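Lab notes, practical 5.
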Amino acid sequence: MEAKWRPYWDETKVFQPTGDAPKGRKYVLDMFPYPSGDLHMGHAEAFAIGDMNARYFKQCGYDVLHPIGWDSFGLPAENAAIKNDTHPKEWTYKNIETQAESFKRYAIAVDWSRRLHTSDPEYYKWTQWLFEQFYKKGLAYRKDSMVNWCPKDQTVLANEQVVNGACERCGTTVTKKSLNQWYFKITDYAQQLLDDMEQLEGKWPDRVLLMQRNWIGRSEGAEVRFEIEATEDQAAESFTVFTTRPDTLYGATFIVVAADAAFAEQIVAPEHKAALEQYREDIKALSDIDRQSSDREKTGVFTGRYAINPLTGAKLPVWASDYVLADYGTGAIMAVPAHDQRDLEFALKFDLPIVKVLDVEGAEDPATSGVAAAGDGVLINSGELTGLPKAEALAKAIELVEAAGTGEGKVIYRLRDWLLSRQRFWGTPIPVIHCEDCGEVLVPEDQLPVLLPDNLRGEQLAPKGQSPLAAADDWAIVPCPECGKQARRDSDTMDTFVDSSWYFLRYVSPNFDEGPFDPQAMSEWGAVDMYVGGVEHAILHLLYARFFTKVVRDLGLIKHDEPFKALMNQGQVLNGGKAMSKSLGNGVNLGEQL
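Output from the prediction step:
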């Protein structure tokens, strides 16, 4: 049947939009595949659902846009090139053709004229152009930070790409490393990302919205400043902690700083420095997600220093531990063990004081029960706050620290800025030139795209702790666009999630060469009406795509706030009890079944 009708579909262009359908337009999209070998039966399930949506809308009288493309940058192609002594594009485009033929034999209703590949220069030129617009708006920047490092793949990983302390892709135990990295300032849009979920209620799966809300993690409270006592060898230090419960300040009995924060190394007493260094080494392999797990036994070391409680004047021992993250809030917390379970477990482990400051109905004594009295009880043992319920006590506590000049009300987010640079070859080059005199200089727009070199292959691409592009002097050494002196290109490439954060915009005009998309075509199609893909992308891809959409809107290029009006998760095809996946070795090729 497919062999009979395919030539007719190609001739009549039956699946291409006509522009004159009676009911208007519908944009249906599937999350595009990665070209690793042939498609498997998991793809067959997912694309059948997109196919049904597209055919349904077309038969209802809509003009339907249902395009196809490939997310074609990434590590598997690079690793295959190293193994086979080839260039990554050879493996990539060969696999794309295999998958394209399987799609055609499967007979899904897609518009092949709009086909795109993120590794095409015609595509990544505009990925680079968008990076430059982000940079000009202050949304792309570099900083030194401790990052997740995969020793095998020799590249950094986002927190979400570390599973049980190991690299999501290769399974190698992840460690920590200090690197100068590129970030997108997604935190500037944290509140918008939360607020605009109202547009998606009832149209996206509830669990996806919940996962995004939890990941963004809005917290209201106060920043409170503490002073660390001076010693004979060390000067006094001040630092701030963020707390959602400033009303419990009277119950703070110790301070915990992130062990891997520079501040911990700065304040530790000389006689405790060796213990801290050993502890920092011990926790290198833990991801941030693992460190915050409620199931892990609490560990830590005493810094030998004491902080002063700004309301009580009490001396609080300062500990370093892995359950506090260096980049969340200020990298330090005030511990109130009677009313916080993690703090209580830490206090019981290291025999630290436990002071109740909340009278929570029905709660047992935390010191003996091992269960923190969490809740909204009336304040006790709390000076001016005693007798107040939670809401009044919160406001009063903030009033007290602000009056004393030791704190202020604050809103923070769990969401961290997006770490986008990767030390690998097969990705979009970052369009920045580093000049000793001029600093960071964007590649002029008329010189985009910055192309990947064709002469690197095989072992030349093997990971060496930095991008292979760094050693390619004929590619990397260029004149500075501003002063003309010898300078160097940035040798990192972008995370492939950057490519997939805007591809749905390109589909409306994939051959447009005056910008990332044709504004007229975008005004006609707008946001995707139905997006089909796996729930495993609930946080990374979908959150990043929402962020990109809002920035592109603020650049004046589009008018809508959200990329996908409706989202459908298709579930999974299991084989051997696990979700079908090439990386697990349990894929059943679609081509073999057709």
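Observations recorded by the TA: The CA atoms of residues 175 and 481 lie 37 Å apart. Residues 41-59 form the longest helix (19 residues).
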